[in-house]
Amino acid sequence: MAKMAGLGCEPVVGSLAPSKKREYRVTNRLQEGKRPIYAVVFNFVDSRYFNVFATVGGNRVTVYQCLEGGVIAVLQSYIDEDKDESFYTVSWACNIDGTPFLVAGGINGIIRVIDAGNEKIHKSFVGHGDSINEIRTQALKPSLVVSASKDESVRLWNVHTGICILIFAGAGGHRNEVLSVDFHPSDMYRIASCGMDNTVKIWSMKEFWTYVEKSFTWTDLPSKFPTKYVQFPTFIASVHSNYVDCNRWLGDFLLSKSVDNEIVLWEPKMKEQSPGEGSVDILQKYPVPECDIWFIKFSCDFHFNAAAIGNREGKIYVWELQSSPPVLIARLSHIQSKSPIRQTAMSFDGSTILSCCEDGTIWRWDTVATS
Amino acid sequence: MMVSKSSDSASKLRKSHAEQASDEFGNLTQKIQQLKKQIQADRVLSIREKLEENRKKLEGHVSLLVSGAFSRNSISVVEANSQGEMLSSRIENPFCKINGFAQGSGDKEQINIQEVLFSTSAKLPYIEKIPPYTTWIFLDRNQRMAEDQSVVGRRRIYYDPHGSEALICSDSEEEIAEPEEEKHEFSEGEDRILWMTFKEYGLNEEVLNIISQYIGGTTSEIQERCYMLKEKNQEKHDQDFNGDEENGSEKNNLLERSLSAALDSFDNLFCRRCLVFDCRLHGCSQSPIYSNEKHSYSSESDEDGKPCSDQCYLRLKFVQDLPESSVVNTLHRPESKSSDEAVRTPVLPSSEEAVMHYEMGKRKVQKCTNTEPDSLVLASDDVQGSSKKQKSLSAQKTDSMVCEGFLNVDSSSNTEVGDIEFETGYKNELLMPNKDAEHLLYESASDKFRCPVDVPRPGLEDRVIYEAKGISHGTEVPVLKESTNFVEGQVEAVLNNSEWKPFEKELYLKGIEMFGRNRLFSCLIARNLLSGLKTCIEVSSYMYNDSAALPCGAIDLPSSFSEDNNKVDAEFMERETPTRSRLIRRRGRTRKLKYSWKSAGHPSMWKRIAGGKNQSCKQYKPCGCQPMCGKQCPCLHNGTCCEKYCGCSKSCKNRFRGCHCAKSQCRSRQCPCFAAGRECDPDVCRNCWVSCGDGSLGEPPRQGDGQCGNMRLLLRQQQRILLAKSEVAGWGAFLKNPVNKNDYLGEYTGELISHREADKRGKIYDRANSSFLFDLNDQYVLDAYRKGDKLKFANHSSNPNCYAKVMLVAGDHRVGIFAKEHIEASEELFYDYRYGPDQAPAWARKPEDSKRDDSSISQGRAKKHQSH
Known about the structure:
The structure holds 2 protein chains of 2 kinds.
Chain A lengths: L11 E2 L9 E9 L5 E6 L9 E6 L2 E7 L5 E9 L6 E8 L5 E7 L4 E5 L4 E6 L6 E6 L6 E6 L4 E5 L4 E6 L9 E6 L6 E6 L4 E5 L4 H9 L10 E3 L4 E3 L8 E5 L2 E5 L4 E9 L7 E10 L11 E2 L5 E5 L5 E5 L6 E6 L8 E6 L5 E6 L3 E8 L3
Parallel strand pairs in A: 1-23, 14-18
Antiparallel strand pairs in A: 2-30, 3-4, 4-5, 5-6, 7-8, 8-9, 9-10, 11-12, 12-13, 13-14, 15-16, 16-17, 17-19, 20-21, 21-22, 22-23, 24-25, 25-26, 26-27, 28-29, 29-30
Chain B lengths: L4 H12 L1 H62 L6 H7 L3 E3 L15 E2 L6 E3 L12 E2 L4 E2 L12 E3 L7 E3 L18 H14 L3 H11 L3 H23 L11 H4 L2 H11 E2 L4 E2 L22 H4 L9 H15 L11 H6 L6 H10 L1 E7 L4 H15 L2 H5 L8 E7 L10 E4 L3 H4 L3 H10 L18 H10 L11 H15 L4 H14 L6 H7 L7 H14 L11 H16 L3 H19 L7 H6 L22 H5 L33 H4 L45 E5 L5 E5 L8 E5 L1 E5 H14 L4 E3 L4 E9 L6 E2 L5 E8 L2 E8 L10 E2 L15 H9 L13
Parallel strand pairs in B: 4-18, 5-16, 19-22
Antiparallel strand pairs in B: 6-7, 8-9, 10-11, 11-12, 13-14, 15-21, 16-18, 17-18, 20-21
Helix pairs in contact in B: 1-2, 2-4, 2-5, 4-6, 5-6, 13-17, 18-21, 19-20, 20-21
């Protein structure tokens, strides 16, 4: 599905001149060991924990809380007994009774479901054939998570029952590592995934929804569940010409990035009657200088008003997502922040931004009242 | 070059008023620029609107999510005992608090790093990880690669797994696809500019050049696009005009469409080899091969003569005809009737009658000294039809022949397969032991049943012949004589004719083609093809009417008809002769086929095979030679045998004729199929049949019950394979139950890819250090990387317990894995990737072959696909 190009199809490109709409300042800086920290994420699942966040790096999963005045409290810490584990991703989820879960995965390919409410492992999912690059939670049903793996598949899991419900791979699947995956904010059936085959694929699990429902009531062994393969995506987009390492839904549009120093907002124009066909309409571009390496992910606040992304040199760009043309809310930089930023996390209202870096540091930035 | 009228006049204008013209074009550029700006502004606006709309929708969704997040809060509050509240309690009592800078610090201020110290950490217990693999899809049969799965010509970007960020683009220059002549795609906005310019300025070269400057694309592209737009607008205009008229007709759309259009998908999507739609193995749009040996439909199911429904034509006739017909059952033809009608008289296949005939014993079927040619034909054809001895009869001089046939009907029903004896002037030829006759029928002649009269009779109309042929089933059945019936029928037919839609007519014709033109078959045609559309009576009467109305030869019959029959006759002869000569011929071929063994079991050898001497394992493609394969036969050229899927006749010299093994169960080289690296085919081999077991359903037929032992891939008589961590490396395949030497374990399935594709994929797999390529034949390589079965995980060993063998199964090469020795339950399976079957019969190990084996380069991990 090619991009639409030519006169009248041009995207609106955001200007890099900061609007100074908001100003962020560093309020804390932590060092968490020496190993790179690949993921940081706020809890958006449970309102009680909106200021709680988790990080993963090396074989460690850590839970913190952002308090007033730049204070960060250390709440929980989990360590994998396998020293060679290197977690790449973490996501908040919860049990059906609301117990908060942390779901982490990494180089070992084992998904760890941690029961943060009881501070112990809940389940471990063995099944992926290789490392796990991203895990995301279905916000409407937070016991469902999807995982993107180097084994070229995306899998849907029920963390409550420990069932692998669906595997998105096969004839129409990714042809190289899957790097990122995301649930549609309102359409529960839809997910988008992207990876090293330079494509973004949109999948529908509508026809398989009975299996999703079945997974909640399954009482037999999880391994006996009739896991289904979803082999054909409903849409394949060639928006980028290199690895696509992060994609997120923005309503019915998609945000995705490659190694081209920009985030792209585009509309998948599907043809109702013929799945697999359609075109891509690139609407907007959000430039991010010095962002030409892969495995740099962006994050949005709860309301999708803004996205924050780090770059190779330790700087953060905060873009207003839904204005046209895009507005650069702020450019965050600090003289001591030089290491590549792998992931950022924006708090519920966007007032706090966290970044985690290759050198094992975690930075906290807070808005300051602009007079 | 096409020049439109307006541009013509424009250029004239320019000549006479040069200045004015240049002004005009200056005007044009201005206009284009203006429009361009307008379009771009519109675009910006439309994006803004889109985003705004999206934002509103999203706002609604987010508010849902917010309420979800808050409700989760309340759920757990309700359920909150002391359990599951550790996180909340940690919030009350954190491990430690790390102070920040309340005011924040600016860009330049130095800030301290605060180390997070973990006093206590909860342990995540060690879990053994599984060996890596790429997610793969189970395939129970090989599948041809879909076009979009090709990696050829695609850029692939690698990253260095050790050195973090380095991106390595595709490694060899040949992989970089030639930048294609980019065709300009016109956007909507560009169309607008084009249309505006076209309308106002026409299309001359200068205009085209100007547009090209602003939009891009070559002038010819622009011109083409303009004409397209013009057409489109015209159409749109037309549509607006008569937009309402086209509704309403959709209902009958299906029936109005021609059958050929409907059959198109059948022709394109149906695989005649696998009898499935959308065959993944042989692909779509296979050029259909028409066998020149038509199979006739033996109307067994209808032999009982019971009406198929209330609307059956039999019901109509049955009642009226029975009294008459049971009495008058000789074939006396009413002289008064016109010949056409007589021939086309419906026949009545009634079991009662058959029984009656039986009772009558020897019965003089016919004694006619009729001078009317058609009745003669009818008579002789009847005999032909039921006796299958066309040959002998065809020798008769029919024109003035007096045929006295005494037919001994010994069958309890009207089946054409009966014990039939003849007494004619050609008695010697015709008299045959009943069993032989039957055998002949079963073996080969049933498909000739419908073959028309072979000897053209001078002075006869083709149609008559056809009709006679149609009737040939019903030798004993008396000709009915009630003209009233015909009148009725005709009236009916005329009435119905008007209602027959083209689609139905075509379906009907298809039915005739399939079953034959005989009112006997109207039940079948109605039921199978026109179900729900027409009743049996309607079909029957339509057939009557249709036959009367149709000109001669309305039904297409192969032009090679008479030839065909001659050949059939020849085949008759051949079949009766002992098969020795065939065997000898086949032995002559095996040398070639022997070599095909050598390609077995060697994933990395294909390149050498493709590049060099061993060209023997050839992909089979059915030929369509009619009627016989000549020197031009593609099979012959390709070095493959003709198979049952070929269009050529069974007597084709290039055919593989299967085996006649009876007791050997085809498990040794005694069996020609086995020796040729082929599985037996129940359609071809004489004694290799498939039984349904001992009557207990669901139980697969056991081996060794006198059944052919060389159809194991075909019948999927495989062992249960288990997948587990290998004792050697990565994953391994294990056996669930013990097996004996040479037992079939299972098939190595995968994607069928070209050698070129395999070359490219091999390079990619080299990087991943895992390859599942397996050379199949000169055309294909099996790749089990993303699609395959568990046997793909069987590891290499130089001292293996299994071997792989490429077998030709129903025209397709397939890879079977066999036990090299007795293997105990739950043992891991290994086979030698490199050398193929070491245990191959001695004849296969020719000096040249062993030399070739020696030359193979040893490699560390044998599974790796070898690259240059």
